[in-house]
Amino acid sequence: MARRAIDTNHYMVLATREQDGGGPRVSPVYYTAARYADFYWVSSPDARHSRNVEAAPAVAIVIFGSTARVGEAEAVYLDAVAEQVPDERLEALLPEAFHPRVGARMLAADELRGDGEMRLYVAHVTRCEVHVPGRHPLNTHGIDTRYPADPTALRARG
């Protein structure tokens, strides 16, 4: 279920902690997943969520099909540690950050550093849960709930 939600969607909701100690800041971002372990996105370093990541790298992510009919939604919830990809790692990570199956135009490393207006970010997954609808045969409670998913198992089959 988690792999399907990740593979069939293109946007994730990224939750960061506001720098002033306030509540969460949520932002939809277009992503590329690598090995179900690392989630890449491009953003301005001046965006609030980017500044929040720099100040407090612990983030939460939700990926779901927003057009699913009621009772048919699949979602994956991720806890992660995010960072701006350092300039010295850009060249090596560009092929997985802009994987061709996703369809986003690959940016050059020079567009993502120096005077470039955008930067590459990555979130490294530390915890994963899946949304299991109440009517799913594995759900013994009968109500929608979250079940833990082993992130290493996601990677092993990915």
Description:
With 158 residues, the protein is an alpha+beta fold. Helix content is 21%, strand content 37%. Strands 1, 2, 3, 4, 5, 6, 7 and 8 form an eight-stranded antiparallel sheet that branches. The longest helix has 11 residues, at 87-97. The relative contact order is 0.21.
Features:
single chain, 158 residues, alpha+beta
Specify Rg, calculated over alpha carbons. 16 Å
Q: Structural class of the secondary elements?
A: alpha+beta
**What's the SSE pattern?**
HEEEEHEEHEEH
Average predicted confidence as pLDDT:
87
Brief account:
This protein is α+β, with helices and mostly antiparallel strands. It has helices at 2-8, 48-55, 87-97, 151-157, and strands at residues 11-17, 24-30, 32-34, 38-43, 58-64, 75-84, 119-132, 145-149. The protein is globular.
